[in-house]
Amino acid sequence: MAIFDGKSDSAQRISKLCGSEFPRAIRSTGNQLFVQFVSDLTVTADGFLAKYSIQDQGSTVESVTDKTTMAPAVTTTSPTTSPMIDPCDKACKRTGTMQTNFCTKEFVIVGKVLVIQQRDGTKLLRVAVIRSFKTGKLKTTQRRRGEVAKVMLPCPQCPKLKKGNVYIFMGTVNPSGVGVILPDSFVVNFKSNLLNILHNIAQRNRC
Q: Are 183 and 93 in contact (CB under 8 A)?
């Protein structure tokens, strides 16, 4: 995260931060502060967390010096708190219906779980795509028996999926083209009668 003392990244940079610890308070010299967030994809989380407050005009403001040429300017002033959001904090229960999730989610597929791996606290799946209704930016690879997609579960405990089972997946896609399923994502065991429902929803909703 880079912080600039002005309205754009052409202003003076007053801090550069990384990691998951709260930094010291950062103050601008005026009423504008430009904050630039960048993720390197090594951490799977919901995003960034920042807090700000407005100081009355004329009140005393201590000067802020640029420490960006050194190591990341972070201190452990609040070691018991962290801005990182635990994906398992969400209730392990899907929200909405197939109808409400169809357009709001980036991909909608029927797929069979071929492989389940756990790595760095995240479950990674290889899913054979049986039927795709929406793929968005979801990347697939062509295999001898059809297409295979990668799907990740940031919270490995939820939802509970089994190798060999067929599910309806409705989720988002990360910048690498991997499907993301959260604890509240819409995932259900596939049943033949649900296929007609999905067809009807797809015909009615031109997302």
A: yes
